[in-house]
Amino acid sequence: MAPTTSYTPPPQRRVTEIPNLNTVRASEAENNGKRLSIGKHIKVSGEVSGCERLVVEGEINATMHDVNTLEIASCGRVGGKADVDSAVVAGSFDGTLIVRGHLEIPQGGSVCGTISYKSVTVANGGKLSGTITILD
Known about the structure:
Blueprint: H1 21-32, E1 35-38, E2 43-56, E3 59-72, E4 77-89, E5 92-105, E6 110-122, E7 127-134
C-alpha cells in the first residue's frame, strides 16, 4: 500500500484594519454613554450639548453645541444651529452648520443655510447650498 499524504492549506493572513478617527470616537461614545439617537418618527426641539455622537433618523430643531459627531440618516431632518467636529448628512440639514473638521454629504444628502467647514466631500447627488465659508 502506498503512503498517503494530506494537504493542509496555509493559514489565512488577516488584513489589519486601521480604524478611522470617527469609528474610534463612535465606539468610545457608546462605551461612555454619550451617544444620543433620535429614532424614526420622533420629533425633538430644544438644545443638545455634551454629546459625543448624535444620530438623527427622525426630526430635530435645536441648538447643538459641544457635539463631536453629527450623523443624519437618509430619513433624518435637522434644523437650527449646530457646532460640531464632524458631520455626515445623508438626510437634510437646514440652518447654521459649523463643522470644525470634515463635512460629508453622500448621495441624497442636502445641506442648506450658513455653512462653515474645514474640509468637505459632496457625492454626486448631494446638495450644498447657501452661504459657505471654509475654515482655516
